[in-house]
Amino acid sequence: MKPIHHQARKRFGQNFLHDPTVIGRIVATIQPQPGDNMVEIGPGPGALTQPILSQIGSLKVIELDRDVIPKLKMFCLGDGELEVIEADALTVDFAGLSQGTHNLRVIGNLPYNISTPLMFHLFESIDQIKDMHFMLQKEVVERLVAVPGGKDYGRLSIMAQYYAKAELMFIVKPGAFNPPPKVDSAIVRLTPRPAEERANIDVSLMNKVVTSAFSLRRKTLRNSLKAYLSAEDFEHLGIDPKARAETLPPSDFVRITAYLEQKG
């Protein structure tokens, strides 16, 4: 059964999935299991919601467009217990949805205009999250999975990879959506790193350091981080001040942050 038609709204950044082959492939990638504690962000009329709900029996969804909610409920009627949270996902307490355990699975076809701030919001609850599967603009996914030295490597790569392992699962072409976006999309899997594998550092300070380092990509670290590190500091850290930010792995930014904290 096809979802009930709903006119996509530009102000919500909506592009609704309609290709059954793509939908099936996404569900197979997520591998929903009965009893999963799962929340879907931006379900729209329910193209992903219905097949996942029918497999796991109970599903929470976060939807800001109140006009689509009755259509969503109608489409999923009889498939399981659907709990609709009418809210902006950027304001939702995801740690609270985890019921105090490390079991929350988060999925969604995220609006491109809020995808990056939404991921940073989710990182705040990373210790309660089991995994995340998102449809994002392909360019954003390429930044999430980028390695040092490439043009896509930057602040988002480093901060995301501090928190989680990022994997590009597959590309989705514009024709799978209504209306079709102007760019390709991609499915990404984010698997949180256990707390014991993440350095115990001030992440807000690391974010400031990384942001400064990439503020002007062509600058050397000596110039971009001059507010943080002296020539002696670079020497102590064993980092070439003439290097550029895109050449440093996330572990070096962790070391820089830990060093700055130690210096006070």
From TrEMBL:
Signal peptide coordinates: none
Location(s) in or outside the cell: Cytoplasm
Ribosomal RNA adenine methylase transferase N-terminal domain mapped to chain residues: 22-194
Enzyme class: transferase
Annotated catalysed reactions: adenosine(1518)/adenosine(1519) in 16S rRNA + 4 S-adenosyl-L-methionine = N(6)-dimethyladenosine(1518)/N(6)-dimethyladenosine(1519) in 16S rRNA + 4 S-adenosyl-L-homocysteine + 4 H(+)
Alphabetical list of PROSITE patterns matching this protein: RRNA_A_DIMETH (PS01131), SAM_RNA_A_N6_MT (PS51689)
Record-level GO cellular component terms: cytosol
GO molecular function: 16S rRNA (adenine(1518)-N(6)/adenine(1519)-N(6))-dimethyltransferase activity; RNA binding
Short name of any one Pfam family annotated for the protein: RrnaAD
Binding site for S-adenosyl-L-methionine: 15, 17, 42, 63, 88, 109
Similarity comment text for this entry: Belongs to the class I-like SAM-binding methyltransferase superfamily. rRNA adenine N(6)-methyltransferase family. RsmA subfamily.
NCBIfam families on file: ksgA (TIGR00755)
Chain's role: Specifically dimethylates two adjacent adenosines (A1518 and A1519) in the loop of a conserved hairpin near the 3'-end of 16S rRNA in the 30S particle. May play a critical role in biogenesis of 30S subunits.
Annotated HAMAP family: 16SrRNA_methyltr_A
Full protein name: Ribosomal RNA small subunit methyltransferase A
Annotated source species: Pleionea litopenaei
Taxonomic lineage of the native organism: Bacteria, Pseudomonadati, Pseudomonadota, Gammaproteobacteria, Oceanospirillales
Name of the coding gene: rsmA
